[in-house]
Design a protein that fits this description.
The structure is a single chain. The chain is an alpha/beta fold. Helices cover 43% and strands 17% of the residues. The protein contains 9 helices and 7 strands; from the N terminus they run αααβαβαβαβαβααββ. It has helices spanning 9-20, 25-36, 46-58, 73-84, 97-110, 125-137, 156-166, 179-185, 201-206; strands at 63-67, 89-94, 118-122, 146-149, 173-176, 211-218, 225-232. A 7-stranded mixed beta sheet has the order 3-2-1-4-5-7-6, sandwiched between helices. Strand 2 (89-94), helix 5 and strand 3 form a beta-alpha-beta unit. It is globular and about 50 Å long.
């Protein structure tokens, strides 16, 4: 199949966003305020945010875990969706204190109630996740039916395992962003020199009998990438 039409990917993104995504001042503010505060422009695109919102609805999720808050752009997408669907909560983990402060400001602007609708936990993911597990076991938190992983690529495998451990079980969804780009940049596939320390998440998930998974490649305003989505058996 010819790839010549790929040059129109950004135009397609713009056309689809214009016609399928309603203006949302809270999301626009999250983008602009994050940029104004020096946060890198690496949040989801509007179409990706809408896709995440639809997945939240389709999965019937009520309790969501997010790794990598950044400026809370995706957090707001999910929190607004949970509210529209009758209620729920997203717990988001952010390692950078300054980014967490911006995220809380953006959530406040969006009218998202903290911590009832959205909680931003400060700390490194691999430090926070065991604490969440202890709180779940103590009956202080519910397990998660949707886990969105958009954090440091080197720990994608560890975060995936923790997502499984903290999930409600059968039917729970684990979504890992930037999986294709990570494979390319670490040399697992593509032309880059192989980083021997890099873990092939796709290979390890493929061997995991607890889940059924797929990788979807994407192209558009965020360049060439792709995500892994798994459903707990």
């Amino acid at each position: 199949m010819s790839t010549s039409n790929i040059i129109y990917a950004v135009d397609v993104d713009a056309h689809c966003e214009k016609n399928l995504i309603r203006p949302n001042s809270a999301l626009t503010h999250a983008y602009s305020n994050s940029t104004a505060n020096g946060i890198p422009e690496i949040a989801l695109s509007p179409s990706q945010g809408k896709f995440l919102s639809l997945l939240t609805t389709m999965s019937g999720s009520r309790n969501v875990l997010e790794l990598g808050t950044l400026g809370a752009y995706s957090t707001i997408w999910i929190a607004q969706t949970l509210r529209a669907n009758g209620g729920g909560k997203i717990t988001s983990i952010e390692v950078d204190p300054a980014r967490r402060d911006v995220a809380l400001t953006n959530l406040e602007y969006a009218g998202v109630t903290v911590p009832e609708e959205a909680e931003v936990v400060l700390g490194a993911g691999l430090d926070v996740l065991p604490k969440l597990e202890r709180e779940i076991e103590a009956g202080q938190r519910d397990r998660y039916d949707f886990v969105f992983i958009d954090a440091d690529w080197g720990n994608q495998g560890n975060y995936f395992d923790w997502g499984l451990k903290l999930s409600k079980g059968k039917g729970s969804v684990i979504y890992v962003d930037n999986v294709v780009r990570q494979m390319m940049e670490s040399g697992i596939l593509g032309a880059e020199k192989r980083d021997q320390a890099a873990t092939d998440l796709v290979e390890s998930v493929g061997k995991d009998e607890r889940v059924d998974a797929v990788v979807m490649q994407t192209v558009g305003a965020k360049d060439y990438d792709g995500f892994l989505m798994a459903v707990v058996k």
